[in-house]
Specification:
By secondary structure, the protein is an all-alpha fold. The protein has a single domain, classed as Glycosyltransferase. 55% of the residues lie in helices and 0% in strands. α10 packs parallel to α13. The longest helix has 22 residues, at 69-90. It starts with a helix and ends in an 18-residue tail after the last helix.
């Protein structure tokens, strides 16, 4: 039974013999095959305690000396939560074993989601808060029978605690981040556009399942994100009193903001005022990602943060493409059908022989979040029904018998 639905889809979509340049069915067949391999990789790499991702096997420049246990526990919660969201995204495409893996992952998040602040300067526990809250909101939106009353109660309690905690972690400028600046206060003083945008989107999901998020907290976050939006369409990395492009080769230029543009536009479109970000601006943001894609591609796999052109980091890659899929989902149907193949092509180009995708060497977490986010994008693309092809009209005149 393993992968029966995906295998069936693959057979139905495959084309026989040699064919001209890629057709609609070609990219869908490739996406279905890539999805099957990605999900198999994730299910094969779940930890005995239900987690996804582990600190074993350091391979990168950042992996040897600076991380401490508190960071690992937080990263593990985050990658586990991201994978659980992906497993819920699968729906009827889920292979055998996926539901049990999902339940075990949710239990791990419930047990470990309340991470403590790691150090005076280090608030990497924010990553656990952000994605644990997302998986809580997603799980509570499912049929109440799916996860049972006891597990749902634990998830709701975790969500309520995380919202309370996030209020304390909101910086004076209204944003959220993952480090603090001197003098290292209880309420961190640094905020970034992308963490803020991600949380605003998650708060919207929370409200839909009855998890109340203070209006003031959301309004301050929204004002912070608006300040980050630059006239050229890019988003300042930081939540600053006076946003800036920081020079012609800086991270706040379009080519350094390609991934932040996606999450920023998505958050302002969903959480902001009506038409604050319109279809044309969303489409332009996606076009910028594709036109300048080489800058995030060149950063992918680099061992040091921000070492690539325009200060791009490897770990921007799958984050940005994941939120780009969210942007595509909001566009008119004709636009969606034109964007999905382009996004899928960029992601499948990164898939390795074992089914995984990664963008930054990061113990074993990188292959988990990269593969999970890609799988979510592939599912969304495959669910988009192709346009019905019209039957060719015969030009021959009918001859009476």
């Amino acid at each position: 039974m393993h992968g029966v639905v995906l295998a069936t889809m693959l057979c139905l979509l495959s084309v026989s013999g040699s064919s001209p340049p890629q057709t609609v069915d070609d990219w869908r067949a490739e996406a279905a095959a890539g999805l099957q391999k990605a999900i198999s990789y994730l299910l094969e790499h779940q930890e005995p305690d239900g987690a996804f991702g582990h600190w074993r096997g350091p391979i990168g420049s950042d992996d040897w000396y600076w991380s401490i246990p508190g960071q690992h526990y937080s990263w593990q919660v985050a990658t586990t939560a991201i994978t659980c969201v992906t497993l819920m995204d699968l729906g009827d495409l889920a292979p055998e074993g996926a539901e049990e893996a999902l339940r075990r992952g949710l239990d791990h998040v419930c047990e470990n989601g309340r991470r403590k602040r790691i150090a005076n300067w280090d608030t990497d526990n924010m990553w656990a808060y952000v994605y644990a809250l997302e998986v809580v909101a997603r799980a509570l939106a499912e049929d109440p029978q799916r996860f049972g009353t006891q597990r749902r109660d634990r998830l709701r309690a975790l969500g309520e605690d995380l919202i309370d905690t996030l209020e304390w972690y909101q910086s004076p400028d209204g944003g959220w981040s993952y480090y603090d600046n001197p003098p290292y206060t209880r309420r961190p003083t640094w905020g970034t556009s992308f963490v803020t945008a991600s949380l605003l989107l998650i708060f919207e999901q929370c409200e839909q399942v009855g998890l109340e998020v203070p209006d003031k907290m959301q309004e301050r976050g929204l004002r912070a994100l608006r300040r980050c939006r630059l006239p050229n369409g890019a988003y300042d990395y930081n939540v600053s009193a006076i946003p800036s492009t920081r020079g012609l080769t800086g991270i706040n230029q379009i080519k350094g903001s390609l991934c932040r543009i996606q999450v920023g536009n998505l958050a302002l479109r969903i959480c902001g005022d009506e038409d604050e970000v319109n279809y044309e601006q969303m489409d332009v943001g996606l076009e910028q990602l594709m036109r300048h894609h080489k800058f995030v591609s060149l950063a992918r796999g680099r061992p040091f943060p921000h070492e690539a052109y325009y200060a791009n980091s490897g770990y921007f890659f799958f984050y940005g493409h994941y939120y780009a899929a969210g942007v595509i989902e909001l566009l008119p149907r004709e636009k969606r059908l034109s964007w999905w193949p382009r996004l899928v092509e960029k992601l499948l180009a990164t898939q390795e022989s074992d089914g995984s995708m990664w963008d930054y060497s990061f113990f074993s977490y990188h292959r988990i979040y990269g593969t999970a986010w890609t799988a979510s994008v592939l599912v969304k693309a495959l669910r988009e029904a192709p346009l019905q092809q019209r039957k060719p009209v015969s030009t021959q005149k009918s001859v009476p018998l």
